[in-house]
Specification:
Shape: globular
Helix content: over 70%
Radius of gyration: 21 Å
Order of helices and strands: HHHHHH
Number of helices: 6
Length: 153
């Protein structure tokens, strides 16, 4: 693990949590209000979607720039954070009871993320771990190769 990337991981996770906090709050903010019209619900929820979009744009930019996670790990992280935030919102905002199954499911999902992030199965079974190459770097390398070949001809 590259310890020089820790500040970027912290920034990435902080931005990710903030973005998903906006997203989940926007999805749940209207639920206690039973008599809202669709337009009223939209007006309440859409600012949270915009905030999520803005913050998530920077989150993805940081993740891609410093090669922090793969797209699959992004998805795992999204699922984990949304699941955790749903539990918190359900418990505190909607006053719903939390079950043991909810907690166990959360830890199963969390375990899946760590298996992916730390390459536990690949490392244990000596399976080659593919390098994380962003599409931008692949395209640049392909363009350089094509240019180099065309100059030789």
């Amino acid at each position: 693990m590259d310890y020089q990337k820790w500040p970027y991981y912290i920034l990435f996770l902080t931005l990710f949590i903030i973005a998903q906090g906006f997203s989940m709050w926007g999805q749940y903010v209207t639920l206690p209000f039973k008599n809202l019209t669709m337009w009223e619900a939209y007006k309440m929820a859409i600012p949270f979607a915009w905030l999520d979009w803005v913050v998530m744009t920077f989150t993805v930019m940081v993740g891609d720039k410093y090669d922090l996670v793969t797209p699959t790990q992004d998805t795992f992280l999204l699922i984990i954070l949304q699941f955790g935030l749903i539990i918190v919102i359900n418990h505190f905002y909607l006053k719903q009871k939390l079950s043991i199954s909810d907690i166990i499911a959360f830890f199963i999902i969390l375990f899946g993320f760590f298996v992916s992030f730390l390459h536990l199965v690949s490392t244990t079974l000596n399976i080659k771990i593919p390098s994380q190459v962003s599409p931008d770097k692949t395209n640049k390398a392909t363009k350089k190769t094509k240019l180099h070949k065309s100059k030789k001809n």
